[in-house]
Design a protein that fits this description.
Length: 175
C-alpha cells in the first residue's frame, strides 16, 4: 500500500504480540499495532486517532470558500459555495434545499468538502469512504461520482466536483 502512494492509515491487528513483531511492522509502514484479543472501543479510538492525524475526522480545514461552523444544535457543518453538509445530522443541502444522498455518496461528499482542492485517487476515495482495501480498478468510484453529479445537475453545482485526468477527483472551491 505504501509503495502505491496510498495514504490510508494502517492499523495491524494480530495475535503476535512480541516486541520484534510490533516494531518490525511499524518500521515497514504500519501506523499502529493492536494485539488480539482487543477491545472494540480501543480499536475504534485508535482508528479515530489515525484519521484525525490525517485531517479526515474531527473538524474541518479553513480554505478558500470553505466555512466550518457549529449550528444552533452544536452540529459540525461544512459549507462551500452553495453547499452545506451537516455531518452530525447526516444532511446535505444546496441553497438550503435538501439533497438525498446514500451513505457512500455522503461519505464521498464529506471527504471532498473536508479537503477542498485536494486531488484524491479512486483508490483513496474507495479506501476512505468504503473503509476497505481497494483491490482492482473497477468503476465503483466512478459510478458513485456520476450519481452524485446527476443529483447536483439541477442546481448547476455539479461542476464543483472536478475530474483531474490521470489522477483522480477533487472538489473545486468556487471563487
Amino acid at each position: 500500500m505504501r509503495e502505491s502512494g496510498s495514504g490510508v492509515p494502517v492499523v495491524v491487528i494480530s495475535a503476535r504480540g512480541e516486541v520484534d513483531d510490533r516494531v518490525g511492522l511499524l518500521r515497514l509502514g504500519a501506523d499502529d499495532y493492536l494485539v488480539k484479543p482487543f477491545d472494540l472501543d480501543e480499536l475504534s479510538a485508535r482508528i479515530g486517532a489515525q484519521l484525525r492525524g490525517r485531517g479526515y475526522a474531527g473538524g474541518a480545514e479553513s480554505a478558500g470558500g470553505l466555512r466550518a461552523a457549529a449550528s444552533d444544535g452544536g452540529h459540525t457543518v461544512l459549507a462551500i459555495g452553495r453547499w452545506s453538509l451537516d455531518i452530525d445530522a447526516h444532511t446535505f443541502r444546496i441553497d438550503d434545499e435538501p439533497v438525498s444522498l446514500t451513505n457512500i455518496e455522503f461519505a464521498i461528499v464529506e471527504l471532498l468538502m473536508g479537503h477542498p482542492d485536494t486531488v484524491f485517487s479512486k483508490r483513496q476515495v474507495y479506501e476512505l469512504c468504503w473503509g476497505e482495501p481497494y483491490m482492482v480498478d473497477d468503476n465503483t468510484v466512478t459510478a458513485h461520482i456520476s450519481k452524485i453529479r446527476a443529483k447536483l445537475r439541477a442546481s448547476g453545482t455539479d461542476g464543483y466536483i472536478r475530474t483531474v485526468w490521470g489522477l483522480g477527483v477533487k472538489l473545486a472551491v468556487p471563487r
